[in-house]
Amino acid sequence: MRLYTKTGDKGRTSLIGGRREKHDIRVEAYGTCDELNGFVGRAISLMDEKTFPDIKPELINIQHELFDCGSDLSNIRENQEYKVTEKMITFLEERMDEYIQEAPKLERFILPGGTPVASELHICRTVCRRAERRCSELMQQEDINVHVFKYLNRLSDYFFAVARVANHREKVKDVEYERSAIVFRSRKDKK
Q1: What are the residue boundaries of the Cobalamin adenosyltransferase-like domain, all occurrences included (predicted)?
Q2: Is residue 6 part of a domain?
Q3: What pTM did the predictor assign?
Q4: Dist. CA 66–CA 83, nearest whole Å
Q5: Is residue 91 part of a domain?
Q6: Distance between CA 170 and CA 48 in Å, rounded?
Q7: How does pLDDT run across 149-169, given as a tens digit for each residue?
Q8: CATH classification at residue 94
């Protein structure tokens, strides 16, 4: 099997159901999901089984789901069946709820960083936000599976929650942004 096809040498690429320019926003959207997947793989490679027995397999599953996102975004056929579902979004929400309880209380913005694992997860968060922005732009021009957009929105929050847990488990404090006001309050505090 050859890895090169030479079909993209003139600036166009194949999608499911047609071809587009390589700079097309749809290609940019699924390409950013692919980029994110690479960073998730790097985060996984930094994790040990003892400290992250729950998070590591979740991230491997997320890598599969990011391929699902890319598949849905690269499909331009009419009446296609999508892979990304509401169930995937609900899972992220449930896991975040648990991780928020595990990490120390948060009141202010924090700087990305801490341990190598947490730092890598913060990079995942920011690349995920870019993928979300690309999908937002794409949705203004064409129909997409809206669950992909929602999934990426929750996934970036998931990465934030997991980065904080990574620092907590490895006994490294998050660094608060010095000029931040108190922006995160519990529902009890808001009353």
Answers
A1: 3-166
A2: no
A3: 0.90
A4: 10
A5: yes
A6: 11
A7: 999 999 999 999 999 999 999
A8: 1.20.1200.10
